Glycerol-3-phosphate dehydrogenase [NAD(P)+] (Roseiarcus fermentans), 328 residues
Amino acid sequence: MASESVVGVAGAGAWGMALANAAAAAGSEVVLWGRDRAGMAALAATKASDRLPGVRLADRVTATADLGALGPCAAILVATPAQATRETAERLAPLAGSAPLVACAKGIERGSHAFMTEVLRQAAPGRAAAILSGPSFAADVAAGLPTAVTLAAADDALARSLCRLLHGPNLRLYHSTDVRGVEIGGAAKNVLAIACGVAAGRGLGASAVAALVARGFAELRRFGEAFGARSQTLMGLSGLGDLVLTCSSPQSRNFAFGLALGRGESVGRAGAGRLAEGAFTARALTEMARARGVDMPIATCVEALLEGALDVEGAARALLGRPQRGEE
Ligand SMILES: NC(=O)C1=CN([C@@H]2O[C@H](COP(=O)(O)OP(=O)(O)OC[C@H]3O[C@@H](n4cnc5c(N)ncnc54)[C@H](O)[C@@H]3O)[C@@H](O)[C@H]2O)C=CC1
Ligand SMILES: O=C(CO)COP(=O)(O)O
């Protein structure tokens, strides 16, 4: 990788800001690019943004709306939402240099059913693609709270060197070559977290939420294995780890979105204002599962709720009324 000491981050939301600070803490100069010219000028001047309240951008982070500033970077972290990852990667593709791109979004592209690194490879074919995922609220990472995540690339040496760009005293990076496993965990857990939020919001009890986490994990594992993920990865940070985090905390926007739905809000009102990736990924996930014959009843109920084809009571009845089966 060229320019070892400069890391680029594309996308100046909560996660982009937190990752920019993490890369700075790990010893790099950082260029943080955002598309909103006025917003980036304000961020450069104040070092603060409503996206991540209470957090100050590190001095080593340069905030800019000039995409060309990402050209000389050693690596570029793509931290825009999953459905915007293609557009961002297409903009990055022609930049000078050959920096690898690291997908930091958690989702599956609607329509194409492409996983995040597939999107990167299609949109920027000349660059290596990697994926970062794991249990990590941006606010926690930015506050320097202890956090561990996984970064995967097909090339083991690349995965290791990308990890070094982010690894710090409070942010522990694990490297992996199981790209598919890492990206599936992050995408699927958001859909399942919506189900847990719905159950909590409707007051169905902690036992119901625990059952959804466990049976949701069975779905995530079945889906992952059908798409070539290693079971060790699915049991790890980006699978079970992130599922547990996101399914248990209203700090998660996906769980909070489900909470609002469970309390009777409409899909439109529950989703207004904050990014809940699972709401965008649910359809792709369930269509892909159906096409491979993978049984995902909880994710399918989430999709039906979002489409208005089921209400919460109908979803609970549908799940509880399924034929008895062995636990697998
Ligand atoms: N916030 C968190 O705790 C974490 C978020 N993530 C993932 O990171 C991704 C981004 O999430 P956040 O930063 O939290 O969202 P956010 O809503 O805080 O920020 C998204 C940013 O992307 C920008 N953006 C949207 N569309 C764009 C486009 N077409 N081109 C350029 N910029 C665009 C927005 O202007 C905004 O600055 C999501 O996939 C999320 O699942 C992953 C781990 C933690
Ligand atoms: O991915 C996350 C934590 O690992 C953030 O979760 P939310 O997008 O649901 O807030």
Notes: Residues 179-201 form the longest helix (23 residues).
